[in-house]
Specification:
The protein has one domain. Helix content is 61%, strand content 0%. The model has no long low-confidence stretch (mean pLDDT 90).
Length: 83
């Protein structure tokens, strides 16, 4: 699907069309992921990045990739030590 956006010419002149398309796709992927509408893998696909690249993008935008509390993590780690 294609979506057309109307942008002022002076804004578009700041970067190439390809760069703008990448930025918009990445921003939308981050938005969807942050609102838990898509998985990490789907968001990475939408952004045109591999999983690690999208995780780095999340980090640079201060979006948590691992959603677990300290207590949950400690419980998981404690469970690894029991036979």
């Amino acid at each position: 699907m294609q979506i057309a956006l109307e942008l002022p010419n002076d804004f578009v002149a700041l970067q190439s069309v390809a760069e703008l398309q990448q930025e918009v796709a990445s921003a939308y992927a981050l938005w969807l992921y942050q609102r838990e509408r898509v998985t990490l893998a789907k968001a990475a696909e939408l952004a045109g990045l591999d999983l690690y690249g999208f995780m780095a993008l999340c980090k640079s935008n201060q979006i948590a990739v691992i959603d677990i509390t300290r207590e949950e993590l400690l419980e998981e780690l404690a469970g690894l030590n029991t036979p």
